[in-house]
Write a structure and sequence with these properties.
alpha/beta, TIM Barrel, Rossmann fold, Immunoglobulin-like, 3 domains, ten-stranded mixed beta sheet, Beta_galactosidase_Trimer, beta-galactosidase activity, zinc, hydrolase
Length: about 675
């Protein structure tokens, strides 16, 4: 599963256990016609594999995998632990997930069991071991997927099992109750604890929970679900050498960095609409770096639209699915897979878009799937002979930051929306970018952004400081650095160690009202918004000044030279159209100052994914907005599909069109 790939996969999620043998034959025939070369199976089939407790039968799935392999279709095999069977839950409420309101979930959906309950863990281990023994050595096994979308429909469990584990986790973390009381500041509202066993789970309260309690419980939950996934992976590795993944998302209540640290390759599910294409591209840029140097998979996306019994999205425009697929392959994916192959005839997702209808006809997205297959074949050789170019600009993503903002959302701030919107500006400016993790190396980057990260660990500050001293430019903020690891406020200064390094003094932290507050930077005046930090710039230099509203005359943006580089503090979020202009100007200004060269002259709505190979640099150019676009070619190039030459200068693309252009190494 190295970044140097052997093939490009075009796949679908497949549920043969729901159909008879005749339909299985028909489906395989249609898959070959459509170009599907990999399927994912088994993730919801526990009752098929173990219909009664202890009665295991995996033979049906072994039969399916062999049949698929005989037709040159590979398989990703799943553990079915997202849907425990009725015999595991009936009459056993103690095994069931309890939500934050104290409501015990019922059987009949998925993720209804507490994944920390010891009986569930044992049954999950046993079913996983039986599957791995039966399937592990079969031909055509491309990989394994653990469970399905961990912590998608549920978040933190509040059952008695979790309460016991929570107290154990706190004891291991804080050692003594006095140390916890001090770290959390439990004297506020007289919530001081005498023993660890007295500390509640964050359930119903008349007002709000203590910030430390709520955030720490999220981190505890994230650690436990990672533990569960890694336990499953260890069982599989005893019987199979095939690589292991999980289909995750930044929406779910998991710490993806920790989760994938124990897995072999990264994959994600996405149902972003074409209007929200920035979210799709953000995921590609993040998951490319989730397992550095290994290709990622898109395990689920809709061939046309997503839907359930209670909701639906509109179908993609013709051409957009192909644009998604080509951009994802170019940005480092090895697989582009759909949910689902054949429409469910029953259940809660009956209306969901599919490749085939429940009655076996081509669904509305079918012709777009054929377009993806034609494109996959066209670009496969070019993609397989190159690797993605590391960006010079990095934006840090943190699931811990997501937990802090869930605890402290102010007026419904949402981490995923905030960071995706911030990231979208890099797209519109044509800057090639990586989305990286707190633990990622900063080697090779010139420009670093850390927005919306309430707590920056000391080890990250040390790493980012070394990056700055060696010539990098680090832009920190907004909403960065103002909380401790326990989700409390610093008592020595407003932003803790970040403030000292940035050469500023935080005068105030308060919400700036974009209707009354105006700031000026880079020759642009714009409203300022969100919870903000206002600075006295000394010895730093003020580059953004509040001109109207509370704290007029003070700085909301500063820069401070450190070694060969500098740190920039962005204390507030510019808002509105003018704010968008200011942020883009800020990004462009520091990109130029940092010497960023991977900055393509491209119209908004069109992207360039640069790749490097033995013959030079390959640009995969894709129009994503359906309006067509332009890109300026810096050198003469050759189209690797048509062999036509393209002269340097402006190149036009039609709606959803893609081009693969090679700049020969000798010409650059």
């Amino acid at each position: 599963m190295s970044m140097k790939q052997q093939k490009l996969y075009h796949g679908a999620c497949f549920y043969p256990e729901l159909w008879n043998e005749a339909v299985l034959e028909e489906d395989i025939h249609m898959m070959k016609e459509t170009g599907i070369n990999v399927v994912r199976i088994g993730e919801f089939a526990w009752s098929k594999m173990e219909p009664e407790e202890g009665c295991f039968d995996i033979s049906f799935f072994a039969h399916v995998i062999r049949k698929l392999a005989a037709n040159e279709i590979e398989t990703v095999m799943c553990t079915p632990t997202a849907t425990p069977p009725i015999w595991l839950t009936h009459g056993h409420p103690e095994r069931i997930h309890v939500n934050e309101k104290g409501e015990t979930m019922g059987h009949g959906s998925r993720q209804h069991v507490c994944t920390n309950h010891p009986y569930f863990r044992e049954r999950a281990r046993l079913i996983t071991e039986h599957i791995a023994k039966e399937i592990g050595g079969l031909p055509g096994l491309a990989g394994w997927q653990l469970d399905n979308e961990l912590k998608c429909h549920v978040s933190e469990c509040m059952c008695e099992t979790c309460k016991t584990l929570w107290h154990k986790w706190l004891k291991e973390r804080y050692q003594s109750i006095d140390r916890l009381n001090e770290a959390w500041g439990t004297g506020v509202w007289s919530v001081t604890y005498q023993t660890f066993e007295q500390i509640p789970q964050p359930g119903p309260t008349p007002f709000l929970h203590h910030s430390s309690l709520k955030t720490m419980y999220q981190l505890f939950s994230m650690e436990k679900i990672t533990e569960f996934a890694h336990e499953q992976a260890a069982v599989i590795r005893k019987h199979s050498d095939a690589p292991i993944t999980h289909n995750s998302s930044i929406m779910f209540g998991v710490n993806n960095e920790d989760l994938f640290s124990g897995l072999d390759f990264a994959s994600f599910d996405t149902y972003a609409s074409q209007e929200n294409r920035a979210a799709f591209l953000f995921n590609c840029d993040l998951w490319r770096n989730m397992k550095k140097g290994r290709a990622f998979w898109i395990m689920e996306t809709s061939p046309s639209y997503s839907a359930s019994l209670e909701s639906y999205a509109l179908p993609h425009e013709d051409g957009y699915l192909r644009a998604e697929a080509v951009s994802s392959y170019a940005l480092g994916s090895e697989a582009f897979c759909y949910w689902l192959w054949r429409q469910h005839r029953a259940g809660s997702e009956q209306p969901h878009g599919s490749i085939l209808s429940a009655w076996g006809e081509q669904d509305v997205g079918y012709r777009n799937v054929l377009e993806v297959e034609r494109a996959r074949k066209e670009i496969e050789d070019a993609v397989l002979s190159t690797v993605p170019v590391q960006a010079e600009t990095a934006v840090v993503y943190s699931d811990r930051a997501k937990a802090f903002l869930k605890t402290e959302p102010h007026r419904q701030l949402h981490y995923r929306s905030l960071i995706t919107d911030f990231y979208d500006r890099f797209l519109s400016l044509g800057i090639h970018r990586d989305v990286i993790l707190e633990g990622s190396t900063l080697a090779g980057y010139k420009l670093l952004f850390t927005p919306f990260i309430h707590y920056l660990p000391p080890e990250f500050i040390k790493k980012a400081s070394a990056f700055t001293e060696n010539g990098g430019i680090w832009i920190a903020g907004p909403l960065t650095g103002g909380r401790t690891e326990h989700h409390t406020i610093h008592t020595d200064c407003g932003l803790g160690p970040l403030e000292t390094y940035a050469g500023v003094k935080t005068l105030f932290t308060f919400p700036l009202d974009e209707r009354r507050t105006v700031g000026s930077a880079f020759g642009i005046k714009a409203p300022l918004s969100l919870w903000s930090a206002v600075f006295e710039a000394d010895p730093a230099e003020a580059v953004g000044i509040i001109e109207q509203g509370p704290a007029s005359g003070k700085a909301f943006m500063t820069e401070h030279k450190r070694g060969k580089g500098k740190i920039v503090m962005l204390g507030s979020m510019p808002a509105g159209e003018a704010g968008d202009m200011m942020l883009k100007k800020m990004i462009s200004h520091y990109a130029e100052e940092a010497g960023v060269t991977l900055n393509m002259n491209v119209t908004p709505g069109t992207i360039v994914a640069p790749r490097m190979g033995p013959d030079g640099t390959l640009w995969v150019i894709v129009n994503m907005d359906g309006k067509g676009g332009e890109v300026v070619l810096p050198y003469n190039a050759a189209d690797v599909i048509t062999n036509n030459r393209e002269a340097r200068g402006r190149l036009k693309l039609g709606p959803y069109q893609y081009r693969t252009l090679l700049f020969p190494a000798a010409r650059q």
